[in-house]
């Protein structure tokens, strides 16, 4: 994501996500995306997360940190995955569809964050701006920038992200971790 998507491009991605959500939950065939009919920005490789919620409560969220396919297909794939493959939740049921709100986050490329110790790490984080990826060997987890709304304290943010990674909450204080940041353009229905 180098250039911001305009309103028309955002609307197309939300429509793709909605169609993917509804057809997959109803066990119907996903619509084929004709990339040539879409704006260039949606044909280019892009990384996205699709977040599903009901009345502000998370119902599913899946995405990719690396761009590996056209953005339109990435959004379609992650809308299906958020509904049917987020291990934290049961599959979305057809009766829930009318109440599901969709949010799409298009990610910038990740940037390594160099730091010297836990205090320096806290000082270099930009709450509300940066998404953060923590990695300890093969374990890795991310929080989108929107998670700062629920966890505005950087220590709590890093501790919860460490737990999400499957590590002790204080691992970020005890050993150097690989840290990357990214930004998102997020929009919802």
- Note the main sheet: 4 strands, antiparallel
pLDDT under 50 segments (min length 5)? none
- Given the structure, what is the number of helices? 6
Query: What percent of residues adopt helix (DSSP H or I)?
Result: 25-40%
Order of strands, main sheet, comes to 2-1-3-8
Find the count of extended strands (DSSP E, 2+ residues). Answer: 8
Order of helices and strands: HHEEHEEHEEHHEE
Distance between the termini: 20 Å
Mean pLDDT: 95
What does the overall shape look like?
globular
Per DSSP, what share of the residues sits in E-state strands of 2 or more residues?
15-25%
Structural class designation: alpha+beta
Radius of gyration: 17 Å
Quaternary state of the chains: single chain
Textual characterization of the structure:
With 189 residues, the protein is an alpha+beta fold. Helices cover 32% and strands 24% of the residues. The chain contains six helices and eight strands; from the N terminus they run H-H-E-E-H-E-E-H-E-E-H-H-E-E. The chain has helices at 7-25, 40-43, 71-84, 117-124, 154-164, 171-174, and strands spanning 47-54, 57-63, 100-107, 111-112, 131-136, 139-143, 178-182, 184-188. A four-stranded antiparallel β-sheet has the order 2-1-3-8, covered by helices on one side. Strands 4-7-5-6 form a four-stranded antiparallel β-sheet, with helices on one face. Helix 1 runs parallel beside helix 3. The longest helix has 19 residues, at 7-25. The model has no long low-confidence stretch (mean pLDDT 95).
